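Tutorial, part two.
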Amino acid sequence: MNQKTNDFGLFIMGGGPGDPELITMKAFNVLKRAEVILYDNLSNEKLLEIAPKNCKMIYVGKQPYGKYTPQEKINELIVENAQNYQVVVRLKGGDPFIFGRGFEELIYAEARGIKCHYIPGISSMQGAGFIDVPLTHRGISESVWILTGTKKDGSLTDDLKCAMKSSATVVIYMGMKKVGEISKAYCDAGLGNMPAAIIQHATLPNQKQVVCSVHNLQESAEQAGLTYPAIIIIGNVVQAKAYANLNQGELLSA
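Running the prediction step on this input gives:
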């Protein structure tokens, strides 16, 4: 894959966590000359305003657990347009290679002779920073486990059990429908008091969040009116700022 901005072909692009100002300069420059944009419901529609007025816009959204454009249809539209236009953008929320099926679309297009380019985006999990939660922090968490809450068959991933055994921060995408199961898994392992947070619409004016213990994750989400799509974060980093303030207070009083 060639990464020159003035290249032609299919651009599989990350639109970031929501705020349109959080896209990359490369993404901005490609959008400015896009001839076709295939976008979904997780990409901010304000990004479409960057494109030329004559750009063809095609919505291929997938509402969580609701109406959706089948992936087979999306693949067909990608190929059809890439064969007829020079600059085709597949615009996805977050980063297209992190639970975004962007790589599946790239493989499908390349197999049909289409030149493809990948433009990374800020992943939605990095929205954690907007509620003062670092994904790693010295002395608290040395690594991050990134999991999908719902596998292709609809079940909760078994990798959660492995992640729970470590001191890593656990970030769960597409987990809101499984929030009760996630909470129970932690409680069954004696980890019900682990700090947790849920963030919905991170970086946007309508951002909502809740911070709680994992044992009352479901109750807290319901009380706060949180639903999907959202990111679940579990680990001591959720309380990192409180720890830092406590330590700072101890230093000042010493």
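The chain has a mean pLDDT of 91. In part three we will examine how such features are distributed along the chain.
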